[in-house]
Amino acid sequence: MAIEVEVNMRIPSLSVRSEGERDTRIDNAAIRFTRLTNVPALPKPGDSLMLTTNKGETTFECTVTRAEWHEEKALFVVSCTYSKRSVSLEMYSALVNDTDWRMKPLLVGG
């Protein structure tokens, strides 16, 4: 039986190269991408999750770092990291422009 979880994914920062201009760095250290998704069972740290963007057109993998019950949301929040060392501009754009994924800034300074 599938269960609904919230994925909370960390992605690497990236540099956008433009011909004739300085490179632009997009720092994702203080950003997480979140979405609701169904999984067959609650994943454990070290497990891989296959996720999608653009209504399933782009598939990618992330590695689970933890899964915790969130009382106020009444669901499990599965934290994970993008499995590749770098993220392409196309993949970043797909996440940013997908209505199922939300960019969530981390609270800084507590």
Brief description of this entry?
The chain is mainly beta and 110 residues long. It has one helix at 89-97; strands at residues 3-10, 14-16, 24-26, 31-39, 48-53, 58-70, 75-82, 102-105. It starts with a strand and ends in a 5-residue tail after the last strand.
Question: Oligomerization state of this entry?
Answer: single chain
Radius of gyration: 15 Å
Number of E-type strands = 8
Structural class designation: mainly beta
Instruction: Estimate nothing, just give the exact number of structural domains.
Output: 1
Rough outline = elongated
> In percent, how much strand structure appears in the residues?
over 45%
Q: Characterize the main sheet.
A: 6 strands, mixed
Q: Can you count the helices?
A: 1
Q: Which sequence of strands runs across the widest sheet?
A: 5-6-7-1-4-8
Mean pLDDT: 92
Portion of residues in helices? Answer: under 10%
H/E element string?
EEEEEEEHE
Query: End-to-end distance, in Å?
Result: 38 Å
Question: Uncertain segments of ≥5 residues (pLDDT<50)?
Answer: none
Overview features:
single chain, 110 residues, mainly beta, six-stranded mixed β-sheet, two-stranded antiparallel sheet, 8 strands, elongated
Task: Please describe what this structure looks like.
A hairpin with a 4-residue loop joins strand 6 and strand 7. The protein has a six-stranded mixed β-sheet, covered by helices on one side. The chain is mainly beta and 110 residues long. The model has no long low-confidence stretch (mean pLDDT 92). The radius of gyration is 15 Å and the shape is elongated. It has one domain.
